[in-house]
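Lecture notes, part 5. Sequence design as translation. It can be helpful to think of inverse folding as translation between two languages: the language of shapes and the language of residues. The source text, in structure tokens, appears below.
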């Protein structure tokens, strides 16, 4: 089983949805820089305050801020992990390599841009456990209430059409170059994310050999 995994893909591509099932099945921690930054923002830390203006504008948070929180977290993870949304720039990938992290696989969930805006503006997430829903295609059983933990469902502040389009621009300009970076290292698995959630999961499961 490949246990040091990077999950990459565009905003709304399904990283969070797949990460929850994958990490439960593989018994490895789910490390999402988006979740970590949002937690810092909720707690009102200095990092959260600095990150807020970038997240709200649909831009990437500067590399030094993100590299710092990931390095601290990975230092305590010796038995594998799934990185969701990190690295997102060549500089972040270089920092990971320089820290001596030996990645086993990079899974790219690919979805055409035209589908992503619709997915994101209809997303709801549980404020307590982070479970992800889609108002139309994957709604919770009871509107506004999480099926998993009963928490309240919320819409992320950066999930509006204007900001999503800016996030897509940042993805293509700054994150997509990582496809060649990891392809040249023989680590990249390309997954079609425009398929049912369980079909996407099965493709990733085969790639990660578990
Ligand atoms: P982050 O939280 O990582 O957001 P993102 O990458 O934009 O991705 P999303 O969480 O929006 O989407 P997802 O791929 O997880 O899709 P999901 O499964 O929810 O980052 C937010 C911000 O933080 C960034 O913009 C940046 O500012 C900052 N940041 C984070 N990491 C950073 C870093 N490393 N460096 C710098 N800045 C950083 O699914 C979306 C919707 O689609 C849901 O409604 C879901 O139900 C639905 N769906 C999922 N799968 C399917 C399917 N197969 N078919 C149909 N619908 C589906």
């Amino acid at each position: 089983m490949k246990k040091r995994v990077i999950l990459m893909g565009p905003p709304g591509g399904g990283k969070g949805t797949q990460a929850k099932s994958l990490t439960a099945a593989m018994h490895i921690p789910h490390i999402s820089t988006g979740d970590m930054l949002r937690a810092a923002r909720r707690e009102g830390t200095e990092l959260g305050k600095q990150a807020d203006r970038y997240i709200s504008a649909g831009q990437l948070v500067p590399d030094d801020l993100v590299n710092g929180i990931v390095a601290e977290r990975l230092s305590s993870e010796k038995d594998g992990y799934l990185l969701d949304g990190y690295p997102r720039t060549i500089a972040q990938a270089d920092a990971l390599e320089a820290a001596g992290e030996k990645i086993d696989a990079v899974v790219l969930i690919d979805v055409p841009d035209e589908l992503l805006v619709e997915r994101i503006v209809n997303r709801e997430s549980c404020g307590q456990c982070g479970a992800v829903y889609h108002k139309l295609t994957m709604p919770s059983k009871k509107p506004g209430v999480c099926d998993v933990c009963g928490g309240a469902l919320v819409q992320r502040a950066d999930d509006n059409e204007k900001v999503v389009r800016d996030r897509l621009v940042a993805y293509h300009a700054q994150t997509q170059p990582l496809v060649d970076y990891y392809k040249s290292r023989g680590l990249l698995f390309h997954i079609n994310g425009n398929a049912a959630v369980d079909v996407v999961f099965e493709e990733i499961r085969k790639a990660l050999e578990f």
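The translated text above is only one of many valid answers, since several sequences can fold into similar shapes. The chain has a mean pLDDT of 95.
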